[in-house]
Amino acid sequence: MHAAAVARTRARNPANDSRFSHPDNRLFNRFCHISELDPSGSLRAIAMKQLRNNVIRAGLDALYFSGAHHLLRPILAGVGAIFMLHHVRPARDDMFQPNQHLEITPDFLREVLAHVRALGVDIVSMDEAHRRMRERDFARRFACFTFDDGYRDNRDHALPVMRDHNAPFTVYVASDFAEGSGRLWWVALERVIARASAIDIVRDGATLSLDAHDDDAKQAAFQQAHDWLQTLASDAEVQREVSKLCARHGVDDAAIPRELCMSWPELRSFAADPLVTIGAHTISHCNLARESEAEAVRQMRGSRERIEAELQRPALHFAYPYGYRTAAAAREFAMARELGFATAVTTRPGMIFPENAEHLTALPRVSLNGNYQTTRFLSVLTSGAATAMWNGFRRVNAA
Ligand SMILES: [Zn+2]
Questions:
Q1: Ligand 1 centre distance from Cα of residue 172 (Å)
Q2: Local mean pLDDT, 10-residue blocks, the chain (399 residues)
Q3: In angstroms, what is the span from residue 10 Cα to ligand 1's centroid?
Q4: Is residue 399 part of a domain?
Q5: Domain annotation covers residue 354
Q6: Distance 24 CA to ligand 1 centre (A)
Q7: CA–CA gap between residue 220 and residue 5 (Å, rounded)
Q8: At 173, phi and psi to the nearest 5?
Q9: Chain segment 316-337, per-residue pLDDT in tens
């Protein structure tokens, strides 16, 4: 990480504030209390979001400094973990990076792999994880590495690191992104706000002007616009609204998938690497739970058929876009099963326990979040203590 990026992370990180740097039961209580809220839907206010991030960090710090994660490990660590990643690329120096949680550096990935290897954990493909869960073969703990969306940096920056550790991994491709016709609206929104000094959104029939004149204002505007987009009825509407903002502020959102995502020809050679598995991630990267049943099935089946036709290999594994409770739940889990996917992963936090074998299309993951790229958090994350706190110490959360 660049020095400026480190300084930025330190400045934002309450762990560097002495009030937060000691184990403190109040922090555990706050952490547990807040984590009961739906991470996607209920925490509307910016202040609450900031607090949540701060409390997660403080909670991870508290776990780390108290050593509690070592004590909790035997009960909580489970039989395996599926790590969730998005971008892997060198850090940027920009202060305004609202999507930073979606990227880690190649160096951090290298540290994670070394940490997992040092724990004596097998790094396996999703096929092998599926076999172990089906056959209840839990003699050795396993870890899977999964990357969502199909970013080109997965090839350019992640693959070399994964090769050094001979570590297989899965990339879930949204077929419109590979086609070059999709919309990565969260990237487009970041680019609009980065160049605008204010943006207008229409909420409840009234035009609301969001200040974006400096980095703090941009951060707040992004959160507010993001929350507003979550209230729209469908992903098509989200894309329409973001495209309007792009047109107004001179951002070419149609060019973003070609710029960031692997095309079909690129995916063909990438998929030929024996370490690589390609999974499906819908056609348009939609929130499946907001779609009709027919459309949700079309999105899931259609993306798999497209990948299989383009790459001439089976796509047996699936990742729900967004993956949280209001984007993937019982209906989608049943659909994935009925469509014949071997596994499907959510973004719900958790380690893999033997009981997860009964819910192969509702698997939890451990996010390698760009806001927490600190090696000392790794032992906390891989102990399962942090995700167990999220889940109120329930081992399986598949409803
Ligand atoms: Zn995604």
A1: 8
A2: 40 34 32 37 53 69 69 70 95 91 92 88 96 95 96 98 98 98 95 96 88 95 92 88 96 97 98 98 95 96 98 97 94 98 94 94 89 71 72 70
A3: 28
A4: no
A5: yes
A6: 35
A7: 20
A8: -105, 125
A9: 999 999 999 999 999 999 999 9
What is the CA(289)–ligand 1 centre distance, in A? 14
Q: What's the rounded Cα separation, in Å, for the pair 153 and 147?
A: 10
Helices (H), the chain: 3-12, 25-35, 46-66, 68-76, 106-118, 126-134, 152-153, 159-164, 175-179, 185-195, 215-230, 235-249, 256-260, 264-271, 293-311, 330-338, 375-383, 385-390
- pLDDT, one tens digit per residue, over 179-237 is 999 999 999 999 999 999 999 998 888 899 999 999 999 999 999 999 999 888 888 89
Which string of DSSP letters, residue by residue, matches 342-399?
Answer: SEEEEEEE--B-GGGGG-TTSEEEEE--GGG--HHHHHHHHHTHHHHHHTTT-S----
Are residue 175 and residue 190 in the same domain, yes or no?
Answer: no
Place of tokens 């990339």: 171
pTM: 0.83
Are 104 and 120 part of one and the same domain? yes
- Angle at the Cα of 52 (from 328 to 150), degrees rounded to 5? 45
What is the span of the domain harbouring residue 63? 3-180+261-390
Check whether residue 172 and residue 305 sit in a common domain: yes
Last residue of a domain, one of 256, 291, 315: 256
Q: Residue 8, SS3?
A: helix
How many angstroms does the Cα of residue 325 sit away from the middle of ligand 1? 15
Q: Nearest Cα to 69, choosing from 389, 383, 395?
A: 383
